[in-house]
Amino acid sequence: MLDSPALDAARSTGTTPLRLVRAEIMKIRTTSTWWLFLIGFTVFTALALTSNGFSHHFQLYPQQDIPDRAQALAQAAQARTPSGVAAIAASMMTSGQFLGVLFVLLLGILVVTNEFAHQTATATFLTVPRRAAVIMAKLAATACFGALFWLVATVLDGVVTAFYLHSQHVSTPLTGWTVVRSVLLNLLAFVLWAVFGLGLGTLIRSQVGSIIAGIVVYLGGLAAAELLFHAIYYFYREGWVLGAPVIAPSVAATVMITPGRAFPHAPPQWAGLAVMVGYALVLTVGGIVLTLRRDVP
Amino acid sequence: MVVLLAVLVLGGLAWLAWRKAGNNTSALAGDVSLRPLGRPSGGRSIPAGQLPGGRIVASGLTKQYQDVKAVDGLSFVAEPGRVTGFLGPNGAGKTTTLRMLLGLAEPTAGTATVGGVRYADLDQPVRRVGAVLEAGAAHKGRSGRDHLRVLCQEAGLPLARADEVLELTGLTAVGDRAFGRYSLGMRQRLAVAAALLGDPQVLILDEPGNGLDPEGIRWMRDLLRTLAARGRTILVSSHQLPEMELLADDLIIIAGGRLAAMGSLGSVVDSMARGGRTLVRTPEAEKLAAALGSHAVVTPGDAGELYVTGVDAAAIGDAAQRAGIAIHQLTTERPDLEAVFIELTAGKAAIR
Q1: Are B244 and B217 in contact (CB under 8 A)?
Q2: B316 with B227, same domain?
Q3: ipTM metric
Q4: Residue A4 included in any domain
């Protein structure tokens, strides 16, 4: 009754970390969440491409009847210089980022909180009692899916951008550094926000709780930080106060992906990167410590 | 120049030594470390009745939650080759105890080991211990087969093993159905299937009969009895006392987080039999009552029979013979498991 050809034939199945990462990827693949997210994500990316396309069109070809036409024409001339076209191409090539990273943020949250919402954490931690290894595998799998979403967006953006530039009678190599740098920074944003979501889900086990926290931090963080530090600036008229909103993750991400200064008094690009990496690290390490100390519910 | 050469040679040697050490440890992690625990490397063919390392030992196990002591200095043993029933009223600490045994909850004090090793320290735990905890524990949108395949992948077992345990638990036909559409009985079977993935030598089950129909209960009983007959250690918690009388070899009864009784099914029931009563039918009831002396308490029944406590059947028979009283029936009424259980746990079952 209990004879098992499969177990008898069992051989070593590779190193443990890779095995666990593959298991986590399998968990994501075997439910419908990821492709529903991917469809929604693709739709939003297409919308963002359309909207970006129109706005850059009016940048290149100002309307006849706008009030400040002289300034618009000067901006159009600037936009048609090689560096201007490259900037437009870079903007087109990262279309869909704003809501796209929200999708990977939510996916990261679900990767952890699903285990508690569906009570599979018990089976998972029975199979792999080393809980930190499980969280690290989830982190790797989540980063992979963040990169996958980025890849899908980049392919879609690339195809559309090539046709778009042609249709606007401007041209720039899509392999130029300005474009490639933006696309790579975009990848960084996708991966870091995915890890951010994972860390958040590990800290806040409640699915609803961590989803709300994630959305509030992502969408509300920007406005809240601006408001807070402008209020502080009202009392302390120091330049660094206006750069301080970088401690909010959304602001840090914006600073990170913007070459040069993202806004007046903004700290340098690496500061944004450091803050984002810091959040991802602190959340994940904190989550691992909590997971090790708390009993599995 | 010479110094540089020496550094290079030494560095090379150190690197080789380091690599060798690294290889050794990785080999240990794979097969060799299983040997001390009595398992042939890679294989699973263990002679029936000989499963060293399958003994479950809890000693001084304690779990203190903020305001309640769910488990209080609990010690017990479950032996290989036997089905050990783990009984207790609601809130007695059964589930907490099992979760501590499985490394899911951290004991406040005391230890729990399987084959002398804490669960968390087991190498390839799935191949040593299988556990059935909650029946509702899979992603609603994932198929039963995928649920098992994920666990195989996680445990490093071949994915084909998922199909084998589906077959074993009679779920092959619904393997591709989403877990959310499983009946309670199917969910319980899937939980058993997951526990059997690594063909473990120890099986720990928390209320596995919940939601099963009579046929399912019989299937579960046969499965567990077969596994025990093959030398596996089976620790199964339950409320279903009549089922336990059919299934268990040994019993552990807890109440209020503490051990109330432990031993073979027979010995636990017998230990309470001294408090049992003897049914006597005799035409001369008053005469017998007088003959029994002051130790005996005689209570008349509804249909002319007498219930005697305080003296056993042999003493009643001897007294009757000495007094020349005819005895028509003399029956020792042993308490059943339910009566023993109620007696052992009475007053300790209050919601804490």
Answers
A1: no
A2: no
A3: 0.87
A4: no
